[in-house]
Amino acid sequence: MTKRFPGVVANRDIALTVRRGTVHAVVGENGAGKSTLMKILYGMQRPDEGTIAIDGEQVALHSPADAIARGIGMVHQHFMLADNLTVLENTTLGAEKLHGIGGRARARIQEISQAYGLGVRPDALVEDLGVADRQRVEILKVLYRGARTLILDEPTSVLVPQEVDALFDNLRGLKEEGLTVLFISHKLDEVLKVADAITVIRRGTTVAEVDPAGTTSRRLAELMVGSELPSPEASESTVTDTEVLAVRGLTLTEPDADGVARTVLDGISLTIHRGEVLGIAGVEGNGQAELVETIMGMRAADSGSVVLDGKDISGLLTRARREAGIGYIPEDRHRHGLLLEAPLWENRILGHVTEAPNSRRGILHPSAARQDTARIVAEYDVRTPGIEVTAASLSGGNQQKLIVGREMSGDPALLIAAHPTRGVDVGAQAQIWDAVRDARRRGLAVLLISADLDELIGLSDTLRVIYRGRIVADADPATVTSEELGSAMTGAAANGNERPEGDTP
Ligand SMILES: Nc1ncnc2c1ncn2[C@@H]1O[C@H](COP(=O)(O)OP(=O)(O)OP(=O)(O)O)[C@@H](O)[C@H]1O
Fold it and tell me: Atom 1 of ligand 1 has which residue's CA nearest to it?
């Protein structure tokens, strides 16, 4: 199959064969063409050349509805469930014709849930479910619509190790029932654990089909980039005793969907020094996103304060906080990080309008901004035909590289990084880590939120565990394992150094 976009060939005569009853992984660098291939298979995009055959029969997929009719379903990376509806309502929405919306639908959901060990309860409210459960609901939704082949886009990026194992059990269950799973992943160790076959894509074309039994993650990564990889260097501590960020007793209450007040942040205190990376580990939904947005002034705390470089910035607007020296890599790059329909160079200015080189003495300076965008594109290896294309036309990983480059520019005192390498490939991940370590050596303080426990452990000088809006444990990144951290995050706190009640520094 071949698929061209203006200035890029996203898929170049790509070939893929997936056998029924297998788990098949697709790996490749950012921008290699994985998502494009999956979108074509799900009928979201049309190939310029080439054919698709299912069970030997050539098919034309003009829309996701066509794909579903042919038994192909997709679970997207960003879940698409309505929070205020139940599992039953979410599942039947748009599929009322299949089994109605009542008793028959409920029975069918229970049947599917049992058959594949998904443990999904039809009457649970989606907002009460954790990330892993929501993912199972997404899978169930696709199965409910009759899919025999499931496409999953980076399914493990939001899960803790224990949840990844559970998901893999589910995937094995599906394949034992004769279903087929096709998934994209950047986590090569995981791919090796679960896949029966691995297709490697480089620069838009298939370069290898690999048997997981006979390969290593390093070898896979080398196939992806087409050369040998540098080994990651261990880094010495650069932590100083100069405070950059001090958060004191931050408390936030917000109404839930029923209007009932809920404590989201419960007296959070933390301090980050020059040269220190402080990592926050937690299962998604335990307050880490709200913590970041409160520090950034996007939510108003009920009490507590945020002090940057000795100045209380609690009363400032988000823009003023950025100008005071905070770089911010947001969790949701589409909502808070980019203007998707604007060209790359305008995205360079976004959130940094008043700074050099984007403006001089209050006057916008497009040519300097353009030049600096070209610098970021080169330095962070953003794969793009140019800086005039829209952000929407970049692959997910390349969008992320652009944001990281932008937020590291202008030498911030503090970098708040929420999932900085989500969706980027191993090469780009190493590059972003290097950039953070370099900046840290120059005295940058970093607040790191990540669901990637290896990243948290590898990059942090200090680790704290957040659970239900409270810091419940500390862990030493030099000794803690990702399994121990995973258990501490799920509330067990057994393997971290649990903090006694009221122990705030
Ligand atoms: N709608 C589009 N318009 C223009 N170019 C596009 C569009 N979608 C994808 N591309 C380009 O096609 C190439 C392949 O992108 P794709 O999203 O398939 O990569 P990927 O392997 O999924 O990357 P990632 O791991 O970063 O998600 C990239 O160069 C990207 O910029």
Answer: 393
Which of 395, 421, 422 most suits a substitution to test ligand 1, by most atoms within 8 Å of the C-beta? 395
The answer to whether the CB of 370 falls within 8 A of the CB of 386 is no
The DSSP output letter for 467 is E
Beta strands in 36-89 (DSSP E): 52-54, 57-59, 72-75
Q: Coil, strand or helix: which one is 143? A: helix
Name the residue of 1, 5, 186 whose CB sits within 8 Å of the most ligand 1 atoms, as the mutation to test its pocket. 5
Q: Report cis status (omega within 30 of 0) of the bond before 255.
A: no
Q: In what order do the strands lie in the sheet with 462-467?
A: 326-329, 414-418, 445-449, 277-281, 462-467, 470-475, 497-498
The full 3-state SS of 375-441, as one line of letters, equals HHHHHCCCCCCCCCCEHHHCCHHHHHHHHHHHHHCCCCCEEEEECCCCCCCHHHHHHHHHHHHHHHH
Percent of residues in the chain assigned helix, strand, coil, to nearest 5: 35, 25, 40
Q: How many CA atoms lie within 13 A of 103 on its CB side?
A: 0
Atom of ligand 1 nearest to the CA of 399: 26
Q: For ligand 1, is residue 47 a contact (CB within 6 Å)? A: no
Is the CB of 41 inside a 6 Å radius of any atom of ligand 1?
no
CA–CA dist 265, 280 (Å, integer): 14
Whole-number Å distance, alpha carbon 33 to ligand 1 midpoint, is 6
Domains identified in the chain and CATH numbers:
3-225 (3.40.50.300), 243-498 (3.40.50.300)
Distance 37 CA to ligand 1 centre (A): 9
Cβ neighbours for 128, distance < 8 A, ≥ 6 positions apart: none
CA dihedral 431, 435, 438, 444 (to 10 degrees): -150
pLDDT in tens, 306-329: 999 999 999 999 999 999 999 999
ipTM of this predicted structure: 0.95
Per residue in 367-414, pLDDT (tens digit) is 999 999 999 999 988 999 999 999 999 988 899 999 999 999 878 999
Q: What is the rounded CA–CA span in Å between residue 372 and residue 447?
A: 25
- The string of pLDDT tens digits covering residues 149-173 is 999 998 988 788 888 888 999 999 9
Confidence tier at 228 by pLDDT (50, 70, 90): low
